[in-house]
Amino acid sequence: MTIAKNTICIWYDKDAEAAANFYAATFPDTNVTAVHRAPSDYPSGKKGDVLTVEFTVAGIPCIGLNGGPMFQQSEAFSFQIATDDQAETDRYWNAIAGHGGQESACGWCKDKWGVSWQITPRVLTEAMAAGGAEAKRAFDAMMDMKKIDVAKIEAARRG
What we know:
Order of helices and strands: EHEEEEHEEEHHH
Number of strands: 8
Mean pLDDT: 96
Low-confidence stretches: none
CATH superfamily of the largest domain: 2,3-Dihydroxybiphenyl 1,2-Dioxygenase, domain 1
Largest sheet: 4 strands, mixed
Number of domains: 2
Shape: elongated
Structural class: alpha/beta
Helix content: 25-40%
Number of helices: 5
Radius of gyration: 18 Å
Strand content: 25-35%
CATH architecture of the largest domain: Roll
CATH topology of the largest domain: 2,3-Dihydroxybiphenyl 1,2-Dioxygenase, domain 1
């Protein structure tokens, strides 16, 4: 077993395993690799409860920690998932927002555990990288969106 040098640790109240399984069912190159149970009672759980879950999200190693309700998720951390087209954007957005999550602005949404996601079509990233008037038009179009509309971003890029 190789332990990654850097792993993202995500705090959950008690549903790290359910979250990891949801991510594995939703995103490619995502899987649950281990579930570890508490060797004894702890402040927010009992011996034998799921304590940590090792998983990857789009190839990024993560650990879900069932630490209890004292810390909440915030938009200060998010996963950014690059999409190739509207169908892929819709699939991920609908999976997250449609299964107990919530929509936000500019391609951001939260899953039912409060973890923030940016579902970002590559066309938007490319427009921003182009700079100048093209980036401004794409940015202005994005500001009126929740889920990113690829066709509207492409139209904004063209002017």
